[in-house]
Amino acid sequence: xxxxxxxxxxxxxxxxxxxxxxxxTHSADIVVIGGGYTGLSVAYHLKMFDPSLDVTLIxxxxxxxxxxxxxxxxxxxxxxxxxxxxxxxxxxNSAKEAHHYMERAVDYTREFIEEHSLDCDFEFPGFLxxxxxxxxxxxxxxxxxxxxxxxxxxxxxxxxxxxxxRIQSEVFHGALFEQRCGLMHxxxxxxxxxxxxxxxxxxxxxxxPATEVQLKPSVSVTTPEGIINAEKVMFATNAYSILxxxxxxxxxxxTTHIVLSRPLIDDExxxxxxxxxxxxxxxxxxxxYFRLTKDNRLLMGGGNVGxxxxxxxxxxxxxxxxxxxxxxxAVLFPHLSKIEFTNxxxxxxxxxxxxxxxxxxxxxxxxxxxxxxxxxxxxxxxLNGKTAAELLLGxxxxxxxxxxxxxxxIPWPPEPLRNIIAKSVCxxxxxxxxxxxxxxxxx
Length: 443
Ligand SMILES: Cc1cc2nc3c(=O)[nH]c(=O)nc-3n(C[C@H](O)[C@H](O)[C@H](O)COP(=O)(O)OP(=O)(O)OC[C@H]3O[C@@H](n4cnc5c(N)ncnc54)[C@H](O)[C@@H]3O)c2cc1C
Prior knowledge:
Layout: H1 9-12, E1 24-33, H2 37-49, E2 55-58, E3 74-75, H3 83-90, H4 92-115, E4 127-130, H5 134-149, E5 155-158, H6 160-166, E6 175-178, E7 182-183, H7 186-199, E8 203-205, E9 212-214, E10 219-223, E11 226-235, E12 252-263, H8 266-269, E13 279-282, E14 288-292, E15 297-302, H9 319-332, E16 341-351, E17 358-362, E18 367-371, H10 380-392, H11 417-438
Parallel strand pairs: 1-2, 1-11, 2-8, 4-13, 11-18
Antiparallel strand pairs: 3-7, 4-6, 5-6, 9-10, 10-11, 12-15, 12-16, 13-14, 14-15, 17-18
Helix pairs in contact: 2-7, 2-10, 3-4, 4-10
The structure holds flavin-adenine dinucleotide (FAD).
């Protein structure tokens, strides 16, 4: 069983022996559905709070099969889509709270990895949000100013000249720099989380999709070859949540793409500089994100997104988007215009209609869900797992009191309206990006 290896470069490089599927009738105190970072973190934290709990985790394919095994590995502080949108949607205080939650998530991820010696190529080069036009530079500076007014720290503006000394691309007009952020190997991290869970006696079954979940009169989760009766259930199914009736309107899957080059040699890296090896994202609506891997492959992701229809979640990569990403490398670093790309892939991110994460109870307190990290869940999911575990155990704390926990989620309409709205928003984003990248100064 190796089909999952085609889903990303990261998955292709790791030898993994999936756990056996669940067979027969089982019982558990809590069953976790989904073996990405969220599910693994929930399972870990449940056992951390109460080692006597019987916790079972089921994963439809293999650990890290979803976004957790396909992402770019940026450990970053962005909540949802942008700070400006969070402020617009939830107000100034919530924007501040969201950023502080994310700072805590990043710090927690770092401490967690260090404390448990997780082998996941973790590094802390910081993060650059680069402006690709003067108008976008203006925009980032305005966002920084807003951040300053609400007391956000650890973010600084780097002007065009200083930025050029770090990264030699004519395209960049300045950047926001955040030292706190890091980079990792996404799949090594997922498998290390799996190892920790197993060490804490979480029962993990891969190749085990939940085909039906019943919440009343008691929780039961049906799978192709078995059933689990439990006290409580955690839905950690992210973009795949459209498969479950109680969650299907809370978010939609949107696919983002990645291309990966062969390792760059010194003569190819030298003209770029990039000695700090920062993770870089631009500030367009449909962001491009790029980084170096441990062996100096150039990873370029983002740009246009795919919007699947109906119950489709994980279509094959869109060849046009893949082509555009390769072209983007040539735009940023012209001397790499002929570089070979060894891998291309895509994966689904979970997108609520207001582009902000959501977590909470479903009905009474027997079921908890967490979804909607958009493209920014690597750090957030570890802390979210702790928050969700607290919810499942009926605990109250500063993190369960965060504004996005048990928030009202505006439902997506059914198809075909859902697809029309998503494509219209995307079309607007594209248009705005085009205008911003052409505009010299924002009015
Ligand atoms: C291409 C790409 C690049 C990204 N880059 C970054 C980045 O650099 N930084 C960042 O912060 N975020 C990034 N993200 C987002 C980040 O990866 C996600 O927010 C995060 O991994 C979500 O974790 P999760 O566990 O909630 O979901 P997932 O990893 O999607 O896990 C859900 C799991 O549920 C399983 N499942 C689904 N249905 C069932 C079922 N019926 N029964 C059992 N199991 C089921 C799936 O197989 C899957 O493994 C990126 C995402 C993508 C796709």
